[in-house]
Specification:
Layout (H helix, E strand, L loop, with lengths): L1 H13 L18 E5 L4 E4 L2 E4 L9 E3 L2 E4 L2 H7 L2 E5 L4 E6 L2 E6 L4 E4 L2 E4 L5 E3 L2 E5 H7 L2 E6 L4 E6 L18 E5 L5 H13 L2 E4 L19 H7 L18 E7 L7 H9 L6 E7 L6 H10 L4 E2 L3 E2 L6 H10 L5
Parallel strand pairs: 15-16, 15-17, 17-18, 18-19, 18-20
Antiparallel strand pairs: 1-2, 1-14, 2-3, 4-5, 5-12, 6-7, 7-8, 8-9, 9-10, 11-12, 13-14
Helix pairs in contact: 4-8
The chain binds flavin mononucleotide (FMN).
Length: 332
């Protein structure tokens, strides 16, 4: 009985599903975009950083080539309904007219009553129920892409999905917003710490065309990154859906590329009017400092105050971030 109760609680906390709210509430213009990073307990939902399994550090795992993860947070984001039948160990997810049933330990799932064979069965691992995310997302008409170079799973609201995404720009009361670009995850990790220290929302700058590992080849003079830097290009980025009028400070994070801020960050600055606001730049890098990248930021945001930058690493502590923030009069 204790075991069953434990399993039930686990399921309630962890079951992941992509469900929709009202049928017909399709919104492809601001379609939901969820990004998950392998080896990260965080996801972004329309650019806002969230924990996959709030209060825990559960990360996606790969079993036989399929990614399993807990995503109670995703259920909450999408307002889906989750049912649980204790006697059969069956979870039922409903979304409009769609219904998915998954059974722990079974490779047979049911979509609108029709049996489907899963590549990998739902499983309980370390007390968390791990579900095959691609199957669930695709059953609810989301598209799922795997980006090998950045080890990311990108889930997008598809044509048939009837989801009302959360409004992406729910200001949490802070006057600051973290905007960052990260090609391989280092800056994303630091951005999460910076956002937590500043009590700020966080949004990712996403290129229209994701960078492959070859695009990022530092040693190839003709790599995409190299060409874009040398040509001072402005590669297209996805819409950010941020209402900047709500913020007076933009905390801007990026990796250093050849001593500079990456071209997509330049695109963001060129496209966004940050007049009168304070920009606080931070970066990650192999070893270079941030100062060489600040000139371009000042050039592209001539009517903003650009503060002293901060270079962080995976080992950066909250007190180091807080110290940089306060030295630059953040929050005053
Ligand atoms: C195209 C490219 C150019 C880079 N140039 C530099 C550089 O000039 N100096 C440096 O210290 N690191 C450089 N790096 C290393 C990155 O700045 C570093 O790995 C950073 O943490 C990556 O952040 P990300 O994982 O958020 O993309 C470069 C990396 C790439 C891909």
């Amino acid at each position: 009985m204790k075991k069953i109760l434990c399993l039930m609680l686990t399921l309630l906390f962890c079951f992941s599903v992509f469900t929709a709210c009202a049928a017909g509430a399709n919104n492809t213009e601001t379609g939901m975009l969820i990004q998950l990073q392998m080896s990260s307990a965080h996801m972004t939902v329309n650019g806002i950083e969230k924990e996959i399994d709030p209060g825990r550090t559960t990360m996606p795992v790969v079993v036989d080539g399929r990614t399993l993860l807990p995503a109670r947070a995703i259920v909450e984001e999408m307002g889906g309904e989750v049912g649980w039948d204790e006697s059969s160990g069956t979870a039922t997810f409903t979304s409009g007219n769609e219904e998915i049933r998954l059974i722990v330990g079974s490779r047979t799932a049911y979509v609108n009553g029709a049996a489907r064979t899963l590549d990998v069965a739902p499983a309980v691992m370390n007390d968390r129920t791990m579900l095959p995310i691609r199957f669930i997302a695709e059953s609810f008409h989301f598209t799922v892409d795997w980006q090998e170079s950045s080890q990311r799973i990108i889930i997008k609201q598809g044509e048939g999905a009837s989801v009302v995404p959360n409004q992406p720009n729910e200001n949490n009361g802070s006057q600051a917003v973290v905007i960052y670009f990260s090609a391989t995850g280092n800056t994303e990790t630091l951005a999460a710490k910076v956002a937590a220290a500043a009590g700020a929302d966080s949004f990712a700058i996403l290129p229209e065309t994701a960078y492959t590992s070859e695009d990022l080849n530092y040693n190839n003079d003709n790599s995409r990154a190299n060409r874009e830097i040398n040509g001072d290009e402005r590669p297209a980025i996805q819409p950010l859906n941020v209402d900047f009028s709500q913020y007076d400070t933009v905390i801007l994070g990026y990796p250093i590329w050849w001593g500079q801020c990456p071209p997509v960050v330049r695109t963001f600055l060129a496209n966004t009017d940050l007049s009168g606001k304070t920009i606080m730049p931070f970066c990650t890098s192999g070893s270079s400092g941030i100062s060489g990248s600040l000139g371009k930021i000042r050039e592209l945001a001539p009517n903003s105050t650009v503060t002293e930058g901060f270079r962080g690493t995976g080992a950066t502590t909250e007190s180091q971030i807080t110290s940089w923030l306060s030295q630059n009069r953040f929050g005053e």
